[in-house]
Fold this protein.
Amino acid sequence: MNIKDYIEHVGRAARAASREVAAASTAAKNAALHAMAAEIRAGRDELIKANLRDVEQARSEGLDAAMIDRLTLTAKGVEAMAQGLEQVAALPDPVGEITELKRRPSGIQVGKMRVPLGVVGIIYEARPNVTADAAALCLKSGNAAILRGGKEALASNQAIAACVREGLAIAGLPESAVQVLETTDREAVGHLVAMPQFVDVIVPRGGKGLIERISREARVPVIKHLDGICHVYIDADADIDKAVRIADNAKTQRYGTCNTMETLLIDQAVATRVLPRLAKIYFDKGVELRGCEQAMALVPQIHAASEEDWATEYLAPILSVRLVDGLDSAIAHITKYGSQHTDAIVTENYSKALRFLREVDSSSVMVNASTRFADGFEYGLGAEIGISTDKFHARGPVGLEGLTSQKWIVLGNGEIRS
Amino acid sequence: MNIKDYIEHVGRAARAASREVAAASTAAKNAALHAMAAEIRAGRDELIKANLRDVEQARSEGLDAAMIDRLTLTAKGVEAMAQGLEQVAALPDPVGEITELKRRPSGIQVGKMRVPLGVVGIIYEARPNVTADAAALCLKSGNAAILRGGKEALASNQAIAACVREGLAIAGLPESAVQVLETTDREAVGHLVAMPQFVDVIVPRGGKGLIERISREARVPVIKHLDGICHVYIDADADIDKAVRIADNAKTQRYGTCNTMETLLIDQAVATRVLPRLAKIYFDKGVELRGCEQAMALVPQIHAASEEDWATEYLAPILSVRLVDGLDSAIAHITKYGSQHTDAIVTENYSKALRFLREVDSSSVMVNASTRFADGFEYGLGAEIGISTDKFHARGPVGLEGLTSQKWIVLGNGEIRS
């Protein structure tokens, strides 16, 4: 079978299975998730053995240490994967939820019912645990899943897929409800994202290059996660202690995550009270600061920021710092240079807090909290399939609800339209 | 200026205006809508004069009577347009609505805020009243709009646009919040749908050819409305009087609308009681019936249906009729031949009603009501910008809420992530 035929075969099977899982009871879906967890625990040694083959191959190909670290599955990692499946089983089932049922003058009752999207395609890179996570989220939300992992993790992913299939079979659900592609050929992705008849949405999880390629080629909707150029704005009316705590945490708690602050904006009125204090904390932790002229005048160790710095997601111990002339300037800077991911204001002023919440057009907007909270677990979604920086459909962390849609339902008693 | 530069110029102005209308108060938006209505009423004679130019041009080009009817603006039509604007002003403002605010173990409160999509592009055909309707819905939902009407209605649309601009100016809102393209060149549409930096969503309102072309060329999300192959299934446990009333209304109340029934499915167990009665009603109203062999055996005047009939949206006094072997067969038929638009079951059986509601994957699913109710006004949306047959984002009639998205908001008190 050539690759195109193979992907179509997978797509057709997914479409058929999607109807069964959409109609499956909560009990059957949860039973499958628990059975998958049991299979993964029971298969721990084989999973680690398969993973070792991937890791050795990766070493022989000279992959870097960070990549190998993400790829490696330990006994602890296997247990975490099983627990992740059980956590999804414990989440409320979003499918079938009826809301906003209202009686209309015609006599009919009109409301909305939450329903699965259908078939979800997920394209991801090294981490093999995504295979179990994504399978669980798609199944619980009543969708069929087509998973395409990275080529470095092929053996690990196939071993996890076997546990997932076994769990589905034990619960009496179709095995093709979750299919892990057996090829990691680039061509396969091209076909997968261009089959609207079989795939309803694509979630790419990986680097910017992958996401841009998929957005370009896709003929189905894509839940995109592009840059995270996140800002903290310390307002003139900020509580300085909160401001220092939040600006420290937002930058230094982890450097490589998408919700890490990349630019700090400070109202000129409080800059002398807050910037030297913060600069000392950052320098002690080895963070390089790049600032505007006013910031450099206050703290001479700050390097000059270029225009490019304001638009850069460092994902590193580097922070750009700009003094601004009040809330409007701060919002204008965020609008111009931000990536609509996560932005926070630190202020005790009620009106400015509300204006920031409303006018900053980002997927997460915060008052007096660290940008690092922008995360499915922290938001109480239980798990996340990705973070969307789009405006259409879901914004920000996407959990079970983001993998569903709402249809209209009408409950009548013989009404006709006149 | 060439067409590409012109469309980019319009797009840039729309993006800038979108920030202002997103932040505009409900009072300012409503003032603009009332001012537009007043301008339209005051400009009635000029509107009708401009429309007459379009109509004369259309006649000289030999457009058919139905097209000219849709194009023509009467004094009554002008008043209806003004009232439509006032009705949108009376709808609740969806922007800024905060829901689901919950406190998390970390101390932060997490919730969702409803926000505009940004810039909405609407591409439509003959009816000039769409210009006012679309402007109103986009403005009220806090979006900037770029409207591209049909070439037949160019003079009418420009005259309406002048009233809309004047209304915006009176309320102190930017005139480029609603821009009606001054060209109807096909090339303009190609550019409009491929500018993700300036346009957030495209709503095509028109024939299938237009929608398919736009879906193919678009680089931004499209709220698509494809076929309406709607079904009524009369179950074995149906109340026969309700069934006859609904099946009559769903087909014959209007033939040319997308929510009109195109295929009637009847459980074999009740076919003798319901089909001859219905056939008489249909024949009296001049509806041609095309059926399966069993249907033909019951009512000899029924013609044979071909495989193609089951997948046809007639938009005409033709109905296909099939006898089925219970609920599963009915759902299987709808899944195979339907267009996921609107489908209804007539039954008094509780479990079958719930199964139909859940398992039929259409944007509107009904129990004991006519498919003709699938409409923004009947659903209480106040107005609709279109009907979506997609699953992503909004399904079914799209009102103000479908032109918005939800972002996450976090209300903290100095919390940091540990």
Summary: The mean pLDDT of chain B is 95. The longest helix of chain B spans residues 3-23.
